[in-house]
Amino acid sequence: MIELKDVTKEYSKGVAALNGVSVKIEQGEFVFIVGDSGSGKSTLIKLIMKELDPTSGTIIVNGQNLNRMKHRHIPKYRRGLGVVFQDFRLLKDRNIYENIAFAQRVVETPTRVMKKKVPAALSLVGLAQKYKMFPKELSGGEQQRVAIARAIVNEPSILLADEPTGNLDPTNSWEIMQLLEEANQRGTTVLVVTHNQEIVNEMQKRVITMKKGVIVSDEKKGGYINED
């Protein structure tokens, strides 16, 4: 469960990226977060990741009050999150197997377990036969599949995806969204920040629309609202 209570985040000169945002996302939900550039979407994700701290307000994730979390506990907290970025962020000098195994080593997964979980994650994203290849040898869509495999290999309760289809063509975009949908069906809470109106309208999930740091719409089964 993710809950923000009256959260404000101000950057320099008192400019508020978020202004009094309150929202609750229950375990197992699939939620799109949409809005124009500068609406506060990325700030919201960074607050949930504990990359930023709120200027005021409270953030609770899976029963943990992030405001009170000690710095030394942040790495462990983040290991419980799966994160997918627009630019993939794969380790270029390691093959696909090693990229995913790296996420397992961070949480000190035993080697015998890793040898089962990494191939299983690759199978889920349809890349079981390409485990020896390096990122540069894969297409953009395949690289994003690897990023998703890395995000789900530790079976996180929450998966955050920041513009996961931003660099992909329509066909690959739909395939990536299908993988996120499958992760959600296995019980993972999924939050997707996106500008892709077609995907949002077609999938009919909960849609939170942001504008200038506030939530202007929260529809349980909605579409993309253009707030121009």
TrEMBL record:
Its main location: membrane. Coiled coil: none annotated. Belongs to the ABC transporter superfamily. Part of the ABC transporter FtsEX involved in cellular division. The keyword Membrane applies. It is a peripheral membrane protein. Gene3D superfamilies: P-loop containing nucleotide triphosphate hydrolases. One of its GO terms (molecular function) is transmembrane transporter activity. It is found in: Cell membrane. SMART domains: AAA. This is Cell division ATP-binding protein FtsE. GO terms for biological process: cell division. Residues 2-228 form the ABC transporter domain. Homodimer. Forms a membrane-associated complex with FtsX. PANTHER family: CELL DIVISION ATP-BINDING PROTEIN FTSE, IMPORT ATP-BINDING PROTEIN. The keyword Transmembrane helix does not apply. Keywords: ATP-binding, Cell cycle, Cell division, Cell membrane, Membrane, Nucleotide-binding.
